[in-house]
Amino acid sequence: MTNLFTKLLSPRQAIRWLLLALTLLLPINAFASPLALGKDIPYAVMPDNSQQQTLDQAYAQLSHREETHTAIFSRGYTHIPHWLHFKLPAHFFAGNERWLVLAPNFIDDIRFFYRPEGSQEPWVEKRTGDTWEGKRGDIDYRFPVFRLPPPPDSVKGYEVMLRAATTSALLLDLELWEPHLFLQHAARTTSFWAFYLGIAAIASLLALTLAALLRSKRLWSITAVSSGYGLVACVQGYVAWVVPGIGLTLQHYLTSIFTLTSYAALSWMSTEVMQFKEKNPWAHKLMAGTALFTLLLIICVPLNLYQKAIYLQAIIYLFTGIIFLIACLYIWWKEKFQLANLILGISPLLLMLVSLSGLMSMLHWLPYHSSIYVIWQYGLIINMLLVVGTVVFQVYRQRIEALNKKKMAEELHFEREARAHQRQFMGIVAHEFRTPLAIITASLANLRQVSSGINHQVTRRYEKIERATERLVQLTDNCLADARLSASQLSIERHPHSLLALITSAASLIPLSDHHSWKLTQEKQAINARTHPDAETASTLAIDSALMRIALSNVIDNAVKYSPGGTIHIDLSRQQDHWAISIRDQGTGIPPDRAGMIFERYRRAVPNDSSRGVGLGLHVSRQIVRAHGGELTLAENTSSGCRFIFTLPVQPKNSQEA
Description:
Elements: H1 2-8, H2 11-25, E1 35-36, E2 43-47, H3 55-62, E3 73-77, E4 82-89, E5 98-103, E6 109-116, E7 124-128, E8 145-148, E9 157-165, E10 169-177, H4 179-214, H5 217-224, H6 227-235, H7 238-242, H8 246-273, H9 276-279, H10 281-296, H11 306-334, H12 339-362, H13 370-450, H14 456-485, E11 495-498, H15 499-506, E12 516-522, E13 525-526, H16 533-538, E14 540-543, H17 545-561, E15 566-574, E16 578-584, H18 592-595, H19 617-627, E17 631-638, E18 641-649
Parallel strand pairs: 12-15
Antiparallel strand pairs: 1-10, 2-4, 3-10, 4-9, 5-8, 5-10, 6-7, 6-9, 11-14, 12-13, 15-16, 16-18, 17-18
Helix pairs in contact: 2-4, 4-5, 4-13, 5-8, 6-8, 8-10, 8-11, 8-12, 10-11, 11-12, 12-13, 13-14, 14-17, 14-19, 15-17, 17-19
């Protein structure tokens, strides 16, 4: 406990707690801008191509140069050290101490020399950099801070020589602060970045948790983008500040590694968010390949080839950005610019454009501007929260759809059970109807024999009773056949049977109609089974005659019911490997919007018309024919009639009999 108390009250920790406390104590209007190199302090610059120039040699060349620069110092990725010369006039100090802050943190080595202007006094040297093993500054802070005393009253100010060398981007952001204003600035920026990284940690943890729970590649790619927050922490100096000692070396390498991984992760996230794998496979392969290649460039960091890796990665990333833009435009156009896809695509697209602009400015291809990095840092948070929120919404919607599908599956299961019970009930009822219908049919036959030729009106009444009885028999046959066909195991009882005889039996109802007649042909030649016994024998086929008679009767009965009158043409023909039975009526045809559903169970050609049946006949007929390995189709549908064709294979297909 004592050790912990001592650490909390150590000078270093005391300064950190003070900076955080000042966030709440200092007023916002106390914040002021510092004097910045370039904008307020012009400078002369010279590359040290030999990398061997001494301070005096560099001063001799720079002190006489009249050309000065007023923009922020940036030279891109270069191994060549640069010397800078500038002056700090006495009025910058106003007789008080000033603090000089050097940034960013990824400069390897910075040597800072100053002395009174015009004097020959020895140079005062300060040194820092993320590879410098000595003290980084006079103040314990995230960036190197040097304390400059006010120049003597007899001099104009200080003249400064600065040498900067790095294996990363050569960029120098030098600021001169009043101490009390810097404390306010440090407190606010430290609190801001602590809040920023806290939000980043929460968003990253949320993405990681969702990715682990939902096992979504999209969420894993969003989690990978968190490497960008690691880069922000390194650039802002938190790694070296929080982890003393090894933290500086760790920050040096992590800056390079996070730079490469953040671009690779952004490419991966972009293709996953836009679902390129499903919507645009070629773009997915290109972007995934470039992301993987960028990751492999990490090996260049320990080999001291980081600058070459960055140039190569920049070219790849520029190409990737163009591909992503083209692919997004194509998908948006194809999906008619749906709002959800626009939001998902614009977010990574903007972040990619901003990060690409930042990369190009670090390479000195574009003028450097700090606002690019501000937008990029905010964009990381907004992008992750937006994408995670959108993905969570999509997951929620998928969950609702899954629940609806589950509910629908349960309802479908109950419906199937209900229909199974219904068919079972209809089968039982139909079976019970068979006995009284058989009695009625037999009694009617006896009555017709007794009253034959006696009374024409009585005979007509008997014929109507016979037609009604046959309708009931056909209905019960259909119910029994449907129950049998719907059974889990259906066995077709095949026996040789004449197709001509079967057609004649199935058409026996037609003569009972007052307005219809029928004509039987074989190969379009008129034929009569009684007068052509050879033709009857030649048409023998192994079938389940009871079921097949039901199938034929249903189609023939429909021809009678749905046509006002006329002749029903039935033709039997032999093809190479099958028999074809064509049944054509002279009705008004089937409405086009109903033709595609007439073979479905309980669907009729004329909806809401139960007087002509329950919509079971054609369904049962097709199922019977298919059970025999054949097919029943609607071959013609015109305003002058319909034609149905049965096709039955000559050789039974065993695989289709089950």
